[in-house]
Design goal:
The protein has about 350 residues and is α/β, with parallel strands linked by helices. The chain has one domain: TIM Barrel (Alpha-Beta Barrel). The chain has 11 helices and 13 strands. The strands form 3 sheets. It has an 8-stranded parallel beta barrel with strand order 3-4-7-8-9-10-12-13, surrounded by 5 helices. A 3-stranded antiparallel sheet has the order 5-6-11, with no helix packed on it.
Amino acid sequence: MYRLLRPLLFRVEAERAHRWTLGLLDAAHALGLARLAQHGVPPAPVHAMGITFPNAVGLAAGLDKSAEHVAALATLGFGHIEVGTVTPRPQPGNPRPRLFRVPQARALINRMGFNNLGIDRLIDNVSRTRYRGILGINIGKNFDTPIERAAADYLAAMRKAYPLATYLAVNISSPNTRDLRRLQDDEELDRLLAALKTEQQSLSRAHGRYVPLAVKIAPDLTEERLHAVAQCLLRHGVDGVIATNTTIARTGVEGLPHGDESGGLSGAPLRERSSAVIRTLYAVLGERVPIIGVGGIMRAEDAKEKIAAGAKLVQLYSGLIYAGPRLVRECVSALARA
């Protein structure tokens, strides 16, 4: 069905098409039709971060920022759903247009800017959903919070998300919030992780359950910085790392329509760089900190590449826009056979 819908959706402005597609999926779910997409998705459990995932293929953050479509998205066969990025206070994000397709390169460029309804609305949506699978909640800081006070935003969101999350993801790598990537620098990262891990221990005692903490990093870090980040993750006992976010590089889209738009580039052009980052991280982390591989998974072979590079799990986003829901089944099946 998606193959028939895609040409029509690609004629519509990208953000509007995104909204329409999620609306159609919700309607299909309400009618009991969406679950047909799960047909052929084999059980292939994977253990990571102390969690047993039904399969290794998850939905990346960004597609459902405020957890409004979780139950419908789960019918596509994902082993986990990651919602957000969510901030303590609601914010509209950057001015539109802010999402662009580059179909010749099977890529997207976005400068959304953490548009979301705020942590309170997300928690309300999660509380009301019937989804009982593995849920990651991806947290960030508000755009107008100075970087010196960023930790306060992450801690505020963490406290509210903790009771309902299976794991928490800390987004310090979006290129669309001013200065956010400074949190990947040595001193900033060290301070932030120290605060988050202290709070995690406190919340674990208060709620009687341990919720793992993963950090999402950028693909644009140098080899030296990746080694430093990996050592910092080990030093603080972080439970997982998500590699990677979108890139500010434009390799693969040069000269193409919309290829010079500002924002983060995702999709096929990011595949090689994302996998290279995973290999570098795995060389330092080994099995001590599981890696979730994201970036440029457009077909099953790309998912296998991420696992071969050292990832324990993978996540999809841009590939869904180009290949549709069948990509989930194809990736799960390929990884199960491998």
